[in-house]
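Final report, results section. Input specification for complex C-07:
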Amino acid sequence: MNGPLVEVVALCKEYRRGEEVVPVLAGLDLTIEAGDYVALMGPSGSGKSTLLNLLGGLDRPTSGAIRIGGEDIGALDSDALAAWRGRTIGFVFQLYNLLPVLTAEQNVELPLLLTDLDARERRRRARAALDLVGLGDRARHRPRELSGGQEQRVGIARAIVNDPMLLLCDEPTGDLDRKAGDQVLALFDALNREAGKTIVMVTHDPRAAARAKRILHLEKGVLLREEVQ
Amino acid sequence: MTGAWRLLPLLRAALQRHRLRLLFTIASITVAFLLFGLLGAVRTALTAGVEIAGRDRLIATQKVSIIQPLPRAYLGRVRQISGVRTVSSLTWFGGIYQDPTKQLVVFAVDANYFDLYTKELLVDPLERSRWLADRTGALVGAGIAARYGWHVGDTVPLQSNIYRRRDGAPSWPVHILGLYHSDSVDTNQIFLHYEYFNESVSFGKDAIGWILIQVADPAMGPRIAAEVDATFANSNAETKTSSEKAVAQSFANQIGDIGKILDFVVTAVFFAMLLVTANTMAQSVRERTAEIAVLKTLGFTDASVLVLVLAESLLITGVGAALGLFLATATTSGLGAALRSFLPHFEIPARAYGIAVLYALGLGLAAGVLPARQAMRLEIVRALRAT
Ligand SMILES: Nc1ncnc2c1ncn2[C@@H]1O[C@H](COP(=O)(O)OP(=O)(O)O)[C@@H](O)[C@H]1O
Ligand SMILES: [Mg+2]
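Structure output:
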């Protein structure tokens, strides 16, 4: 692929609350190379989640452009954007967001329902992803039978099962104790170093950020500074 | 749009979410469709008379009241009207057998009565000729014969709660000479010879209940009916003659009012079910706000989420309808066999199944449309932020 994986140009996002316009991102520029591991830090309300959601095509910018893998995602209609998300992005949420009635394996299989794979192959891949996060033996467990750390690892398995170009993680360790958090972070390390996954991770935790290759500091909708490690 | 089959695992998951609520909702819909099926069968049973009424038969009754008698001599005069093929009579006997609180359907009829109902009242020719040859003979329905354990050859004493015997004897011994069968009319009736009745009664001699007229051509019916009534106009027993179909129809119209009440009940029940199902669906979608947002995040389109919710709603009403109709069918065929001799048409009309399918679809769509739209329009970012 030519050029950076993520290119963000003059990105603005404002929300409307009745008459009032709330500016959240104000002309933000950003490039991320394939294989990078970026931590996004900043005070609460600075627009980290907003930026992540825009990168993942969950929301649309007020102005500015986002190109990911060369695709101008602003040009996609809602269905095309959904399909693009399914193929390109893996999301990891702070609160895991697993479907409670489905087993771990069924949760991981969800994104594969949108592919042409047959049931057998879907299962095989879901198992492989669970093995990768170290939960091959919990395939039949439902979320409430798992610990928080295990739930989050199922969430990660679900995010990577489609082999996405870009992993977007919004405070993935925010709800975990230190040990479970470390396990999750170790998983991201491995995914980045060994599988070459590009990761953007929002975090409050400096220890988590320290594992990334770049740390971006966001404040009041603009990138304040960047550290490269 | 993704193939709908991809949504199946999600549909299964949606249904598992709240099993007890799902069960109650389906049970309510089952009851509604059971009621719908049963009321359909009741209506069919009550209005079947119109379907079987012969087009070539007229009935003349006393003009003032159908329970007032007519002079027997009228029969001969009616016979002379052109276009009349057969004339017969039917007189209510008011029969009682053993238990005075149980009214039996017993008529005294002319010997040619069965000629008018060759399709409806099926009698073995040999039995019929024996009946014709025996003044005290009776032809009885297979239903009532089975009920009282009567056999051909038995003699049973019938009493009347209207008439007394001239000779003071307490009852009319009746010789059962044959059974009639029918798939269209009640098989609990008993037919005696008018002659036997007439010669033995202490009062009401030479009076008959109704005159039955078979016409050569149904098209002549109205003209002949008018002529019959004109013949007896200004006598002290004026007649009112109508086609059997018209009589059946006017009876059915009275039932029709009951039918309207039934319709109202069914409508009210379905409306209640709409509210129950819509509420279930609204709750189901509300609880799954985050889940739906996650599905969209994973790449499911707005349309597929809409389909998912509608499918859930349709499945609930469809399963409920299928169960309800199954139970209604089982009940009517079980009950129908038991009731066969009183209500020969206690069965769910084929049309009702078609209507039920439409109702189930309509109910499912109506209950699901708002929650489905809500799910379709749900914005991922807003929904995830709310949790
Ligand atoms: N849907 C919305 N409507 C209005 N304001 C919003 C909405 N979403 C986010 N905001 C506002 O945007 C700002 C940035 O939010 P967010 O990106 O979630 O911050 P962070 O993740 O950095 O804590 C906050 O002030 C928040 O209140
Ligand atoms: Mg946030």
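The CA atoms of residues 109 and 220 of chain A lie 38 Å apart. The radius of gyration of chain A is 17 Å. This concludes the modelling results for the funded period.
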